[in-house]
Amino acid sequence: MSIPVALPSTTLGWVLLIIVTLLLLKAVLTVTLAFAHARTAARRRARTEGSPLPGVSVMIAAYNEEVGIADTLRSVLAQQGPALQVLVVDDGSTDATAAIAAQFARSDPRVTVLRKANGGKASALNLAADHLTYPVAVSVDADSALAPGTLAALARHFHDPRVGAVAGDVRVAGPVTSLTQMQNLEYSVGQQMEKRAQDMLGAVSVVPGAAGAFRSDLIRRLRYSHDTITEDMDLTVAIAAEGYEVRFEPGALSYTEPPVDLRSLWRQRMRWMYGTFQVMGKYRHLIMNPRGGRLGWLTLPYVLVYGLTLGGAGPIFDLAALALLTQHMNDALLPLLLNVGADVAVAAAALLLGRQSLRPLLITPTQRLFLRPFVSLVVVMTCVTFLRRRNVQWNKLPRVGLRLPGAAPTREPLPQAGD
User: Fold this and answer.
1) Local structure of 394: helix, strand or coil
2) What is this structure's pTM?
3) How far apart are CA 412 and CA 56, in angstroms?
């Protein structure tokens, strides 16, 4: 017995059906690649099991980070495995950041504190690059904390001489509110689905500042650029342009403090999006260029088409479907249900791969109705700002401190010399 299928009766209905079909194909491909990456990651671990780990130099650029710098340093110094050097660069802080870091340096010879006038994150990281001791350099944001085993998980990739950089898995660890929970689900999908799929395609576009590993000699030579305000993406693309692999390591967890109010979230996303525009403009000569390799044929076109175009078009689809529902319900209902179902399925797959609770699925409708339009508005405003040649600056977000999963808030004493 065949089941009748009602085809759209309007042009808009056909457009919606074609769009949702393409989105479903992308979702299926992304989930398939993400689960294949889980097997690839296991094989990579097996190949380096028992091999000595290269030493790691951790770079922490800090400007007015007295709220969280101690937790960051504790999480780094507690890492087991590779030989460790910790470089804290105080970028002209006006609070107690330098004093707190200096207390750690007095009690642990692995910590060095460098001080400079305020010049921005790129200049602070470049100063750290001048003092690297070990062959692997790992950037850690001063508002983040590493899970145990993160440095070892990142370092083992550099046994392969083809690898130039490795991205860690960044997760949200802030106050539990509707806004931070929506960001948590967004991060989970971005890391467990998008990053895994990009790794399988050789198209990872960003190694994040919260947990990113690089070959030290590449950082010394290429340097963090002042040309853009997303220095981590800029360096990642520069390394890929040199012909090196950029990977994603799901076992390298870094918990970061998210924006806790709409104003801070807006400023963060404007910087991210504007910096992406800058990077795309800087490396536009590589797009669809045979000399660009996978970077030119996959990574940059993906960012352009999905990140900057289709990524901001979701709410337009929703509005068109809702408008069509009032006139031709049959034309809009199926595409809308398929699209929502795909969102839930992809989010569920991401949470399962990340070994997280499925409870965040309950906020999927809220995220779709609020966060997606919010991000789309950011894309539009960034386009306007970029075309009008107005600059977006690195904005310091207010800090409230990390709230790590399963951990009660504590105020551990700072280390004393001789501890």
Assistant:
1) coil
2) 0.90
3) 26
Cβ count near 259 (within 10 Å): 19
Q: Residue 412: its pLDDT value, please?
A: 59
Q: What is the mean pLDDT of residues 200-219?
A: 96
Provide the pLDDT confidence category of residue 319 given band limits of 50, 70 and 90. low
CA distance 405 to 31: 26
β 212-215/163-172 pair status: antiparallel
In the chain, what are the domain boundaries? 53-261
CB-count burial class (<10 Å; 0-12, 13-18, 19+) for 288: exposed
DSSP strand pairing (56-62 vs 84-91): parallel
Q: Which CATH superfamily is domain 53-261 in?
A: Spore Coat Polysaccharide Biosynthesis Protein SpsA; Chain A (3.90.550.10)
Name the strand (E) or helix (H) holding 248.
strand 245-256
C-alpha to C-alpha distance for 203 and 94, rounded to whole angstroms: 40
Partners of 57 in the beta sheet?
85, 137
